[in-house]
Amino acid sequence: MATQPTRADARGNRARILEVAEEVFGRGGSTASTEKVARLAGVGIATVFRHFPTKQMLLEAVLVRHFDHLCQRAQSLAESDDPGPAFFDFFGQIVADAAGKLAIIEAFTDAGGDVDGKAAQGPRDLREAVGVLLRRAQDAGAVRTDIGLDEVHALLVGVSRAVAHIRLDERARARALEIIFDGLAPR
Amino acid sequence: MATQPTRADARGNRARILEVAEEVFGRGGSTASTEKVARLAGVGIATVFRHFPTKQMLLEAVLVRHFDHLCQRAQSLAESDDPGPAFFDFFGQIVADAAGKLAIIEAFTDAGGDVDGKAAQGPRDLREAVGVLLRRAQDAGAVRTDIGLDEVHALLVGVSRAVAHIRLDERARARALEIIFDGLAPR
DNA sequence: GAATATACGGAGTGGGGACTTCGGATGGCA
DNA sequence: TGCCATCCGAAGTCCCCACTCCGTATATTC
Lengths: 187, 187
Prior knowledge:
- 2 copies of one chain form a homodimer.
- The first copy, chain A, is mainly α and 187 residues long.
- Chain A has 2 domains: 1-53, Arc Repressor Mutant, subunit A (Orthogonal Bundle), CATH 1.10.10; 61-184, Tetracycline Repressor, domain 2, CATH 1.10.357.10.
- In chain A, 72% of the residues lie in helices and 0% in strands.
- The first copy, chain A, is elongated.
- The first copy, chain A, binds a DNA duplex (30 and 30 nucleotides) through residues 5-10, 13, 33-35, 38, 43-47, 49-50, 53-55.
Protein backbone atom coordinates (compact mmCIF):
# COMPACT_ATOMS: atom_id res chain seq x y z
CA MET A 1 0.00 0.00 0.00
CA ALA A 2 2.72 2.42 0.93
CA THR A 3 4.79 1.57 -2.14
CA GLN A 4 5.13 4.34 -4.68
CA PRO A 5 3.21 3.61 -7.88
CA THR A 6 5.24 3.30 -11.08
CA ARG A 7 3.24 5.57 -13.36
CA ALA A 8 3.65 9.32 -13.11
CA ASP A 9 -0.06 10.14 -13.00
CA ALA A 10 -0.57 7.64 -10.21
CA ARG A 11 2.26 9.17 -8.19
CA GLY A 12 0.82 12.62 -8.70
CA ASN A 13 -2.64 11.54 -7.65
CA ARG A 14 -1.31 9.84 -4.56
CA ALA A 15 0.52 12.96 -3.48
CA ARG A 16 -2.48 15.19 -4.17
CA ILE A 17 -4.78 12.88 -2.24
CA LEU A 18 -2.48 12.95 0.77
CA GLU A 19 -2.30 16.72 0.67
CA VAL A 20 -6.05 17.19 0.35
CA ALA A 21 -6.72 14.57 3.01
CA GLU A 22 -4.59 16.42 5.52
CA GLU A 23 -6.61 19.54 4.83
CA VAL A 24 -10.02 17.84 4.86
CA PHE A 25 -9.49 15.67 7.93
CA GLY A 26 -7.75 18.55 9.63
CA ARG A 27 -10.79 20.73 9.20
CA GLY A 28 -13.59 18.21 9.63
CA GLY A 29 -12.07 15.60 11.89
CA SER A 30 -11.79 11.95 11.04
CA THR A 31 -15.53 11.79 10.33
CA ALA A 32 -15.11 13.77 7.13
CA SER A 33 -16.03 11.56 4.17
CA THR A 34 -13.58 9.93 1.83
CA GLU A 35 -15.72 11.10 -1.06
CA LYS A 36 -15.00 14.70 -0.15
CA VAL A 37 -11.29 14.01 -0.24
CA ALA A 38 -11.69 12.47 -3.69
CA ARG A 39 -13.75 15.38 -5.00
CA LEU A 40 -11.35 18.03 -3.76
CA ALA A 41 -8.39 16.07 -5.07
CA GLY A 42 -10.09 15.94 -8.46
CA VAL A 43 -10.16 12.15 -8.66
CA GLY A 44 -12.77 9.43 -8.38
CA ILE A 45 -13.47 7.65 -5.12
CA ALA A 46 -12.06 4.45 -6.50
CA THR A 47 -8.70 6.12 -7.01
CA VAL A 48 -8.51 7.04 -3.37
CA PHE A 49 -9.33 3.49 -2.34
CA ARG A 50 -6.83 2.07 -4.81
CA HIS A 51 -4.00 3.99 -3.19
CA PHE A 52 -5.27 3.59 0.35
CA PRO A 53 -7.43 0.45 0.62
CA THR A 54 -9.05 1.70 3.79
CA LYS A 55 -10.04 5.04 5.21
CA GLN A 56 -8.00 4.21 8.26
CA MET A 57 -4.95 3.55 6.13
CA LEU A 58 -5.41 6.93 4.49
CA LEU A 59 -5.58 8.59 7.87
CA GLU A 60 -2.51 6.67 8.93
CA ALA A 61 -0.59 7.86 5.89
CA VAL A 62 -1.60 11.45 6.54
CA LEU A 63 -0.41 11.17 10.09
CA VAL A 64 2.89 9.59 9.20
CA ARG A 65 3.53 12.48 6.84
CA HIS A 66 2.57 15.04 9.45
CA PHE A 67 4.69 13.51 12.18
CA ASP A 68 7.63 13.33 9.83
CA HIS A 69 7.43 17.07 9.38
CA LEU A 70 7.18 17.69 13.11
CA CYS A 71 10.07 15.36 13.83
CA GLN A 72 12.30 17.07 11.33
CA ARG A 73 11.51 20.40 12.89
CA ALA A 74 12.23 19.08 16.37
CA GLN A 75 15.48 17.52 15.27
CA SER A 76 16.75 20.66 13.62
CA LEU A 77 15.83 22.63 16.74
CA ALA A 78 17.68 20.07 18.84
CA GLU A 79 20.89 21.22 17.23
CA SER A 80 20.29 24.79 18.26
CA ASP A 81 22.80 26.55 20.47
CA ASP A 82 20.05 27.85 22.73
CA PRO A 83 18.32 24.78 24.17
CA GLY A 84 15.91 26.80 26.29
CA PRO A 85 14.38 28.88 23.50
CA ALA A 86 14.52 25.86 21.22
CA PHE A 87 12.30 23.90 23.56
CA PHE A 88 9.81 26.69 24.09
CA ASP A 89 9.82 27.58 20.41
CA PHE A 90 8.93 24.06 19.45
CA PHE A 91 6.21 23.98 22.07
CA GLY A 92 4.73 27.17 20.69
CA GLN A 93 5.04 26.04 17.09
CA ILE A 94 3.22 22.80 17.72
CA VAL A 95 0.44 24.66 19.45
CA ALA A 96 0.18 27.22 16.65
CA ASP A 97 0.02 24.37 14.17
CA ALA A 98 -2.73 22.70 16.07
CA ALA A 99 -5.44 25.21 15.22
CA GLY A 100 -7.82 23.53 12.79
CA LYS A 101 -6.05 20.22 12.67
CA LEU A 102 -8.46 18.21 14.74
CA ALA A 103 -7.96 14.75 13.41
CA ILE A 104 -4.23 15.00 13.49
CA ILE A 105 -4.22 16.05 17.08
CA GLU A 106 -6.70 13.31 17.87
CA ALA A 107 -4.29 10.81 16.49
CA PHE A 108 -1.38 12.47 18.22
CA THR A 109 -3.30 11.99 21.41
CA ASP A 110 -3.55 8.30 20.81
CA ALA A 111 0.22 8.10 20.79
CA GLY A 112 0.34 5.84 23.78
CA GLY A 113 -2.75 3.94 22.68
CA ASP A 114 -2.26 1.75 19.66
CA VAL A 115 1.40 1.06 20.12
CA ASP A 116 1.39 -1.68 17.51
CA GLY A 117 0.21 0.14 14.37
CA LYS A 118 2.77 1.63 12.04
CA ALA A 119 1.19 5.01 12.68
CA ALA A 120 2.37 4.78 16.25
CA GLN A 121 5.96 5.08 15.11
CA GLY A 122 5.48 8.76 14.28
CA PRO A 123 4.30 9.75 17.73
CA ARG A 124 7.05 7.65 19.27
CA ASP A 125 9.70 9.35 17.18
CA LEU A 126 8.27 12.74 17.95
CA ARG A 127 8.12 11.90 21.60
CA GLU A 128 11.76 10.97 21.49
CA ALA A 129 12.66 14.17 19.67
CA VAL A 130 10.77 16.20 22.25
CA GLY A 131 12.61 14.26 24.92
CA VAL A 132 15.92 15.43 23.50
CA LEU A 133 14.70 19.02 23.40
CA LEU A 134 13.47 18.72 26.97
CA ARG A 135 16.68 17.18 28.33
CA ARG A 136 18.85 19.79 26.69
CA ALA A 137 16.63 22.57 28.00
CA GLN A 138 16.78 21.10 31.48
CA ASP A 139 20.58 20.75 31.30
CA ALA A 140 20.75 24.39 30.29
CA GLY A 141 18.70 25.35 33.34
CA ALA A 142 15.77 26.63 31.33
CA VAL A 143 13.24 24.03 32.47
CA ARG A 144 12.64 22.65 35.92
CA THR A 145 14.20 19.24 36.44
CA ASP A 146 11.49 17.56 38.49
CA ILE A 147 9.30 16.80 35.49
CA GLY A 148 9.56 14.28 32.71
CA LEU A 149 8.47 13.65 29.18
CA ASP A 150 5.05 12.38 30.29
CA GLU A 151 4.08 15.68 31.84
CA VAL A 152 5.35 17.67 28.89
CA HIS A 153 3.52 15.40 26.50
CA ALA A 154 0.30 15.84 28.45
CA LEU A 155 0.67 19.60 28.39
CA LEU A 156 1.53 19.65 24.73
CA VAL A 157 -1.50 17.60 23.81
CA GLY A 158 -3.72 19.53 26.15
CA VAL A 159 -2.83 22.96 24.90
CA SER A 160 -2.99 21.80 21.32
CA ARG A 161 -6.44 20.37 21.80
CA ALA A 162 -7.63 23.46 23.56
CA VAL A 163 -6.35 25.75 20.86
CA ALA A 164 -7.79 23.55 18.14
CA HIS A 165 -11.24 23.60 19.70
CA ILE A 166 -11.74 26.95 21.32
CA ARG A 167 -12.22 30.18 19.50
CA LEU A 168 -9.21 31.73 21.19
CA ASP A 169 -7.76 35.01 20.06
CA GLU A 170 -4.05 35.48 19.59
CA ARG A 171 -3.58 37.25 22.89
CA ALA A 172 -5.42 34.70 25.01
CA ARG A 173 -3.47 31.88 23.41
CA ALA A 174 -0.21 33.63 24.14
CA ARG A 175 -1.29 34.17 27.73
CA ALA A 176 -2.22 30.53 28.23
CA LEU A 177 1.14 29.50 26.82
CA GLU A 178 2.85 31.99 29.10
CA ILE A 179 1.22 30.43 32.12
CA ILE A 180 2.43 27.01 31.15
CA PHE A 181 5.90 28.27 30.33
CA ASP A 182 6.08 29.91 33.73
CA GLY A 183 5.01 26.62 35.26
CA LEU A 184 7.77 24.84 33.39
CA ALA A 185 10.46 27.28 34.49
CA PRO A 186 12.83 26.25 37.27
CA ARG A 187 11.52 26.87 40.74
CA MET B 1 -39.76 18.08 24.94
CA ALA B 2 -38.14 18.90 28.25
CA THR B 3 -41.43 18.71 30.13
CA GLN B 4 -41.66 15.93 32.68
CA PRO B 5 -44.05 13.17 31.58
CA THR B 6 -47.13 12.57 33.70
CA ARG B 7 -46.90 8.82 34.13
CA ALA B 8 -44.49 7.37 36.68
CA ASP B 9 -42.98 4.77 34.37
CA ALA B 10 -42.32 7.41 31.75
CA ARG B 11 -40.57 9.63 34.28
CA GLY B 12 -38.45 6.69 35.38
CA ASN B 13 -37.51 5.78 31.85
CA ARG B 14 -36.59 9.35 31.04
CA ALA B 15 -34.28 9.53 34.02
CA ARG B 16 -32.70 6.17 33.26
CA ILE B 17 -32.13 7.13 29.63
CA LEU B 18 -30.40 10.33 30.66
CA GLU B 19 -28.18 8.47 33.07
CA VAL B 20 -27.23 5.77 30.58
CA ALA B 21 -26.71 8.34 27.83
CA GLU B 22 -24.19 10.24 29.94
CA GLU B 23 -22.30 7.00 30.43
CA VAL B 24 -22.51 5.85 26.80
CA PHE B 25 -21.69 9.17 25.16
CA GLY B 26 -19.04 9.78 27.78
CA ARG B 27 -17.30 6.57 26.86
CA GLY B 28 -17.86 6.44 23.11
CA GLY B 29 -18.15 10.09 22.17
CA SER B 30 -21.12 11.59 20.42
CA THR B 31 -20.84 9.00 17.64
CA ALA B 32 -22.10 6.26 19.93
CA SER B 33 -25.46 5.01 18.65
CA THR B 34 -28.80 5.87 20.14
CA GLU B 35 -29.73 2.20 19.93
CA LYS B 36 -27.00 1.35 22.41
CA VAL B 37 -28.39 3.87 24.84
CA ALA B 38 -31.82 2.29 24.48
CA ARG B 39 -30.50 -1.22 24.97
CA LEU B 40 -28.51 -0.38 28.09
CA ALA B 41 -31.42 1.58 29.50
CA GLY B 42 -33.64 -1.45 28.97
CA VAL B 43 -36.11 0.33 26.70
CA GLY B 44 -36.97 0.29 23.00
CA ILE B 45 -35.47 2.75 20.59
CA ALA B 46 -38.83 4.39 20.11
CA THR B 47 -38.97 5.26 23.78
CA VAL B 48 -35.71 7.15 23.58
CA PHE B 49 -36.96 9.11 20.59
CA ARG B 50 -40.27 9.80 22.26
CA HIS B 51 -38.56 11.51 25.16
CA PHE B 52 -35.85 13.14 23.06
CA PRO B 53 -37.08 13.62 19.49
CA THR B 54 -33.56 13.96 18.19
CA LYS B 55 -30.19 12.55 19.06
CA GLN B 56 -28.93 16.09 19.36
CA MET B 57 -31.65 16.94 21.85
CA LEU B 58 -30.66 13.93 23.91
CA LEU B 59 -27.06 15.07 23.91
CA GLU B 60 -28.20 18.54 24.83
CA ALA B 61 -30.19 17.23 27.77
CA VAL B 62 -27.24 15.19 28.97
CA LEU B 63 -25.03 18.24 28.81
CA VAL B 64 -27.46 20.48 30.61
CA ARG B 65 -27.61 17.94 33.41
CA HIS B 66 -23.85 17.65 33.56
CA PHE B 67 -23.25 21.38 33.60
CA ASP B 68 -25.85 21.79 36.30
CA HIS B 69 -23.85 19.47 38.49
CA LEU B 70 -20.59 21.27 37.77
CA CYS B 71 -22.18 24.65 38.42
CA GLN B 72 -23.58 23.57 41.74
CA ARG B 73 -20.18 22.32 42.76
CA ALA B 74 -18.53 25.55 41.70
CA GLN B 75 -21.10 27.64 43.48
CA SER B 76 -20.77 25.75 46.73
CA LEU B 77 -16.99 26.06 46.49
CA ALA B 78 -17.40 29.78 45.87
CA GLU B 79 -18.71 30.14 49.40
CA SER B 80 -15.63 28.52 50.84
CA ASP B 81 -13.50 30.43 53.31
CA ASP B 82 -10.34 29.45 51.46
CA PRO B 83 -10.67 30.92 47.96
CA GLY B 84 -7.26 29.69 46.87
CA PRO B 85 -7.74 26.00 47.59
CA ALA B 86 -11.34 26.28 46.41
CA PHE B 87 -10.20 27.41 42.99
CA PHE B 88 -7.51 24.79 42.62
CA ASP B 89 -9.78 22.07 44.01
CA PHE B 90 -12.40 22.83 41.43
CA PHE B 91 -9.80 22.84 38.70
CA GLY B 92 -8.57 19.43 39.80
CA GLN B 93 -12.07 18.03 40.17
CA ILE B 94 -13.09 19.04 36.69
CA VAL B 95 -9.97 17.46 35.29
CA ALA B 96 -10.50 14.25 37.26
CA ASP B 97 -14.07 14.15 36.00
CA ALA B 98 -12.94 14.53 32.45
CA ALA B 99 -11.41 11.10 32.10
CA GLY B 100 -13.64 9.08 29.83
CA LYS B 101 -16.20 11.79 29.24
CA LEU B 102 -15.32 12.65 25.70
CA ALA B 103 -18.55 13.98 24.39
CA ILE B 104 -19.19 16.15 27.38
CA ILE B 105 -15.81 17.74 27.11
CA GLU B 106 -16.33 18.19 23.41
CA ALA B 107 -19.45 20.14 24.15
CA PHE B 108 -17.78 22.04 26.94
CA THR B 109 -15.21 23.06 24.42
CA ASP B 110 -17.86 24.53 22.22
CA ALA B 111 -18.84 26.86 25.02
CA GLY B 112 -18.01 29.94 23.06
CA GLY B 113 -19.23 28.43 19.81
CA ASP B 114 -22.97 27.95 19.52
CA VAL B 115 -24.03 30.78 21.74
CA ASP B 116 -27.66 30.51 20.70
CA GLY B 117 -28.64 26.96 21.69
CA LYS B 118 -30.12 26.28 25.09
CA ALA B 119 -27.19 23.97 25.73
CA ALA B 120 -24.91 26.97 25.61
CA GLN B 121 -26.44 28.31 28.80
CA GLY B 122 -24.70 25.61 30.84
CA PRO B 123 -21.21 26.49 29.70
CA ARG B 124 -21.99 30.17 30.17
CA ASP B 125 -23.18 29.61 33.72
CA LEU B 126 -20.19 27.44 34.47
CA ARG B 127 -17.89 30.03 33.00
CA GLU B 128 -19.42 32.62 35.25
CA ALA B 129 -19.08 30.38 38.29
CA VAL B 130 -15.44 29.75 37.45
CA GLY B 131 -15.04 33.49 37.08
CA VAL B 132 -16.21 34.00 40.65
CA LEU B 133 -13.84 31.31 41.91
CA LEU B 134 -11.01 32.91 39.98
CA ARG B 135 -11.67 36.43 41.16
CA ARG B 136 -11.89 35.39 44.77
CA ALA B 137 -8.69 33.39 44.47
CA GLN B 138 -6.96 36.37 42.90
CA ASP B 139 -8.23 38.70 45.62
CA ALA B 140 -6.86 36.28 48.19
CA GLY B 141 -3.47 36.40 46.51
CA ALA B 142 -3.50 32.74 45.49
CA VAL B 143 -3.57 33.32 41.74
CA ARG B 144 -1.63 35.78 39.65
CA THR B 145 -3.68 38.81 38.67
CA ASP B 146 -2.43 39.31 35.13
CA ILE B 147 -4.64 36.59 33.68
CA GLY B 148 -8.33 36.39 33.00
CA LEU B 149 -11.14 33.94 32.58
CA ASP B 150 -10.21 33.25 28.96
CA GLU B 151 -6.82 31.88 29.84
CA VAL B 152 -8.18 29.78 32.69
CA HIS B 153 -10.90 28.46 30.45
CA ALA B 154 -8.37 27.49 27.83
CA LEU B 155 -6.24 25.68 30.37
CA LEU B 156 -9.23 23.95 31.89
CA VAL B 157 -10.42 22.68 28.56
CA GLY B 158 -6.94 21.75 27.46
CA VAL B 159 -6.05 19.72 30.49
CA SER B 160 -9.44 18.07 30.51
CA ARG B 161 -9.10 17.05 26.89
CA ALA B 162 -5.62 15.78 27.42
CA VAL B 163 -6.62 13.70 30.41
CA ALA B 164 -9.66 12.37 28.59
CA HIS B 165 -7.59 11.21 25.63
CA ILE B 166 -4.24 10.12 26.93
CA ARG B 167 -3.59 7.04 28.92
CA LEU B 168 -2.09 9.02 31.76
CA ASP B 169 -1.31 7.48 35.09
CA GLU B 170 -2.31 9.15 38.32
CA ARG B 171 1.16 10.48 39.02
CA ALA B 172 1.70 12.03 35.61
CA ARG B 173 -1.66 13.72 35.75
CA ALA B 174 -0.89 15.17 39.15
CA ARG B 175 2.45 16.43 37.84
CA ALA B 176 0.89 18.10 34.81
CA LEU B 177 -1.62 19.80 37.08
CA GLU B 178 1.16 20.87 39.38
CA ILE B 179 2.95 22.57 36.52
CA ILE B 180 -0.14 24.50 35.59
CA PHE B 181 -0.86 25.41 39.18
CA ASP B 182 2.67 26.71 39.54
CA GLY B 183 2.15 28.73 36.41
CA LEU B 184 -1.03 30.19 37.85
CA ALA B 185 0.59 31.17 41.12
CA PRO B 186 1.53 34.83 41.68
CA ARG B 187 4.89 35.83 40.28
C1' DG C 1 -62.26 -3.44 38.11
C1' DA C 2 -63.41 -1.26 33.85
C1' DA C 3 -62.33 2.82 30.73
C1' DT C 4 -59.11 5.67 28.66
C1' DA C 5 -55.38 8.33 27.87
C1' DT C 6 -50.63 7.62 27.99
C1' DA C 7 -46.56 5.11 27.04
C1' DC C 8 -44.20 1.08 25.15
C1' DG C 9 -41.42 -1.93 21.73
C1' DG C 10 -40.31 -4.18 17.47
C1' DA C 11 -40.29 -3.94 12.76
C1' DG C 12 -39.75 -0.96 9.27
C1' DT C 13 -37.77 3.26 6.09
C1' DG C 14 -34.43 6.38 4.15
C1' DG C 15 -30.09 8.38 3.71
C1' DG C 16 -25.26 8.49 3.99
C1' DG C 17 -20.83 6.65 3.69
C1' DA C 18 -17.26 2.90 3.19
C1' DC C 19 -15.86 -0.05 -0.19
C1' DT C 20 -16.20 -2.90 -5.20
C1' DT C 21 -16.80 -3.75 -9.99
C1' DC C 22 -15.78 -3.26 -14.60
C1' DG C 23 -15.52 -1.10 -19.01
C1' DG C 24 -12.76 2.69 -20.68
C1' DA C 25 -8.62 5.81 -20.88
C1' DT C 26 -3.68 6.61 -20.93
C1' DG C 27 1.29 6.74 -19.73
C1' DG C 28 5.52 4.10 -20.95
C1' DC C 29 8.04 1.65 -24.20
C1' DA C 30 9.31 -0.64 -28.70
C1' DT D 1 2.75 4.86 -33.87
C1' DG D 2 0.82 0.99 -31.71
C1' DC D 3 0.69 -2.32 -27.88
C1' DC D 4 -0.35 -3.36 -23.21
C1' DA D 5 0.04 -3.07 -18.41
C1' DT D 6 -1.33 0.19 -15.40
C1' DC D 7 -4.54 3.34 -13.79
C1' DC D 8 -8.90 5.74 -13.91
C1' DG D 9 -14.05 7.00 -12.69
C1' DA D 10 -19.17 6.25 -12.57
C1' DA D 11 -22.34 3.42 -10.84
C1' DG D 12 -23.31 0.29 -8.03
C1' DT D 13 -23.60 -2.84 -3.21
C1' DC D 14 -23.97 -3.24 1.57
C1' DC D 15 -24.32 -1.89 6.16
C1' DC D 16 -25.12 1.15 9.88
C1' DC D 17 -27.82 4.41 12.11
C1' DA D 18 -31.18 8.11 12.93
C1' DC D 19 -35.85 8.25 12.98
C1' DT D 20 -41.20 6.53 12.22
C1' DC D 21 -45.48 3.53 12.43
C1' DC D 22 -48.70 1.04 14.64
C1' DG D 23 -50.56 -2.57 17.32
C1' DT D 24 -50.06 -3.71 22.29
C1' DA D 25 -49.57 -2.95 27.26
C1' DT D 26 -50.28 -0.52 31.52
C1' DA D 27 -50.72 3.55 34.94
C1' DT D 28 -54.26 6.31 36.44
C1' DT D 29 -58.90 7.64 37.54
C1' DC D 30 -63.48 6.74 38.87
